[in-house]
Amino acid sequence: MIARRMGVGGLAGLMAVVAALVVAMGAPGLRAAEPRAQMGAGDEQVLAQADESQQEQDKDKKDEKKDDKKDDKKDEKKGLSLKPDHKITFTTDEGTWLSLDVSPDGKTIVFELMGDLYTLPIEGGKAKLISGGMAFDNEPRFSPDGQWVTFI
Fold first, then answer.
1. Cα 56 off chain centre by
2. Given this model, what pLDDT does residue 39 score?
3. DSSP string, the chain
4. Which end of the chain is more exposed for a tag (fewer CB within 10 A), N or C?
5. In 10 A of CB 1, how many CB atoms?
Protein backbone atom coordinates (compact mmCIF):
# COMPACT_ATOMS: atom_id res chain seq x y z
CA MET A 1 0.00 0.00 0.00
CA ILE A 2 2.84 2.40 0.78
CA ALA A 3 4.61 1.47 -2.49
CA ARG A 4 1.55 2.47 -4.51
CA ARG A 5 1.46 5.94 -2.96
CA MET A 6 5.11 6.51 -3.76
CA GLY A 7 4.66 6.13 -7.51
CA VAL A 8 7.23 4.87 -10.05
CA GLY A 9 10.25 4.74 -7.77
CA GLY A 10 8.23 2.93 -5.14
CA LEU A 11 10.77 0.31 -4.09
CA ALA A 12 13.58 2.83 -3.73
CA GLY A 13 11.28 5.11 -1.76
CA LEU A 14 10.20 2.23 0.48
CA MET A 15 13.83 1.38 1.15
CA ALA A 16 14.49 5.02 2.02
CA VAL A 17 11.57 4.98 4.47
CA VAL A 18 12.84 1.80 6.10
CA ALA A 19 16.35 3.25 6.35
CA ALA A 20 14.98 6.51 7.78
CA LEU A 21 12.99 4.58 10.40
CA VAL A 22 16.06 2.56 11.37
CA VAL A 23 18.06 5.76 11.81
CA ALA A 24 15.17 7.45 13.67
CA MET A 25 14.98 4.52 16.07
CA GLY A 26 18.56 5.16 17.01
CA ALA A 27 20.31 2.14 15.53
CA PRO A 28 24.01 3.00 15.95
CA GLY A 29 26.19 3.13 12.85
CA LEU A 30 23.31 2.90 10.37
CA ARG A 31 22.50 5.68 7.91
CA ALA A 32 19.89 6.06 5.21
CA ALA A 33 21.11 4.68 1.87
CA GLU A 34 19.40 7.40 -0.18
CA PRO A 35 19.59 11.08 0.80
CA ARG A 36 16.33 13.01 1.16
CA ALA A 37 17.39 15.45 -1.56
CA GLN A 38 17.06 12.67 -4.18
CA MET A 39 13.56 11.63 -3.08
CA GLY A 40 10.35 12.67 -4.79
CA ALA A 41 7.47 14.63 -3.25
CA GLY A 42 5.52 11.44 -2.49
CA ASP A 43 8.54 10.00 -0.70
CA GLU A 44 8.78 13.06 1.55
CA GLN A 45 5.13 12.68 2.50
CA VAL A 46 5.65 9.03 3.43
CA LEU A 47 8.71 9.95 5.50
CA ALA A 48 6.74 12.69 7.25
CA GLN A 49 3.98 10.20 8.07
CA ALA A 50 6.55 7.71 9.33
CA ASP A 51 8.15 10.41 11.52
CA GLU A 52 4.72 11.35 12.94
CA SER A 53 3.95 7.71 13.62
CA GLN A 54 7.27 7.25 15.41
CA GLN A 55 6.67 10.36 17.51
CA GLU A 56 3.22 9.09 18.49
CA GLN A 57 4.69 5.73 19.50
CA ASP A 58 7.38 7.44 21.58
CA LYS A 59 4.72 9.58 23.27
CA ASP A 60 2.60 6.49 23.98
CA LYS A 61 5.62 4.73 25.54
CA LYS A 62 6.32 7.74 27.75
CA ASP A 63 2.67 7.89 28.81
CA GLU A 64 2.71 4.17 29.62
CA LYS A 65 5.82 4.61 31.76
CA LYS A 66 4.16 7.50 33.62
CA ASP A 67 1.03 5.41 34.17
CA ASP A 68 3.14 2.49 35.43
CA LYS A 69 4.92 4.78 37.88
CA LYS A 70 1.57 6.14 39.11
CA ASP A 71 0.26 2.59 39.54
CA ASP A 72 3.41 1.62 41.46
CA LYS A 73 2.95 4.60 43.78
CA LYS A 74 -0.70 3.68 44.34
CA ASP A 75 0.33 0.10 45.11
CA GLU A 76 2.91 1.37 47.58
CA LYS A 77 0.30 3.49 49.32
CA LYS A 78 -2.57 1.03 49.26
CA GLY A 79 -0.67 -2.22 48.79
CA LEU A 80 -1.53 -5.72 49.72
CA SER A 81 -1.88 -5.90 53.47
CA LEU A 82 0.84 -8.32 54.49
CA LYS A 83 1.54 -6.56 57.75
CA PRO A 84 -0.76 -7.30 60.67
CA ASP A 85 -3.03 -4.43 61.61
CA HIS A 86 -2.91 -5.30 65.28
CA LYS A 87 -1.68 -7.97 67.64
CA ILE A 88 -3.88 -10.13 69.82
CA THR A 89 -2.37 -11.96 72.77
CA PHE A 90 -4.16 -14.51 74.91
CA THR A 91 -3.46 -17.32 77.31
CA THR A 92 -5.28 -20.63 77.12
CA ASP A 93 -5.02 -24.07 78.66
CA GLU A 94 -7.19 -25.89 76.13
CA GLY A 95 -7.91 -26.02 72.40
CA THR A 96 -10.24 -27.74 69.97
CA TRP A 97 -9.75 -29.03 66.44
CA LEU A 98 -6.03 -29.41 67.06
CA SER A 99 -3.62 -31.17 64.73
CA LEU A 100 -0.94 -32.87 66.78
CA ASP A 101 1.76 -35.52 66.69
CA VAL A 102 3.91 -37.24 69.31
CA SER A 103 7.67 -37.51 68.78
CA PRO A 104 9.09 -41.01 68.13
CA ASP A 105 10.83 -40.99 71.52
CA GLY A 106 7.50 -40.16 73.20
CA LYS A 107 8.83 -37.09 75.05
CA THR A 108 7.38 -34.20 73.00
CA ILE A 109 4.09 -33.22 71.40
CA VAL A 110 3.91 -30.87 68.41
CA PHE A 111 0.56 -29.20 67.80
CA GLU A 112 -1.12 -26.45 65.80
CA LEU A 113 -3.24 -23.80 67.46
CA MET A 114 -4.82 -21.08 65.29
CA GLY A 115 -2.26 -21.56 62.49
CA ASP A 116 0.83 -21.46 64.72
CA LEU A 117 2.95 -24.50 65.64
CA TYR A 118 4.05 -25.29 69.19
CA THR A 119 5.97 -28.01 70.96
CA LEU A 120 5.10 -29.14 74.46
CA PRO A 121 6.75 -31.67 76.79
CA ILE A 122 4.56 -34.78 77.11
CA GLU A 123 4.48 -34.34 80.91
CA GLY A 124 2.98 -30.85 80.49
CA GLY A 125 4.38 -27.39 81.02
CA LYS A 126 4.74 -24.36 78.84
CA ALA A 127 4.26 -24.61 75.05
CA LYS A 128 7.12 -23.30 72.90
CA LEU A 129 6.28 -21.49 69.63
CA ILE A 130 8.22 -22.99 66.71
CA SER A 131 6.38 -21.39 63.76
CA GLY A 132 4.09 -18.37 63.95
CA GLY A 133 3.07 -15.28 62.06
CA MET A 134 0.77 -14.45 59.18
CA ALA A 135 1.02 -17.89 57.53
CA PHE A 136 -1.47 -20.56 58.58
CA ASP A 137 0.68 -23.60 59.35
CA ASN A 138 -1.13 -26.83 60.13
CA GLU A 139 -0.92 -30.64 60.33
CA PRO A 140 2.53 -30.88 61.96
CA ARG A 141 4.29 -34.26 61.90
CA PHE A 142 7.60 -35.40 63.38
CA SER A 143 10.11 -37.06 61.06
CA PRO A 144 10.78 -40.75 61.83
CA ASP A 145 14.03 -39.86 63.63
CA GLY A 146 12.35 -37.02 65.57
CA GLN A 147 14.81 -34.37 64.40
CA TRP A 148 12.45 -32.48 62.09
CA VAL A 149 8.85 -31.28 62.08
CA THR A 150 6.99 -31.13 58.77
CA PHE A 151 3.79 -29.19 58.22
CA ILE A 152 1.54 -27.79 55.52
1. 28
2. 53
3. -HHHHH-TTHHHHHHHHHHHHHHHTT-TT---SS-GGGS-HHHHHHHHHHHHHHHHHHHHHHHHHHHHHHHHHHHHHS----S-S-------S--SS-EEEE-TTSSEEEEEETTEEEEEETT----EEEE-SSS-----EE-TTSS-EE--
4. N
5. 4
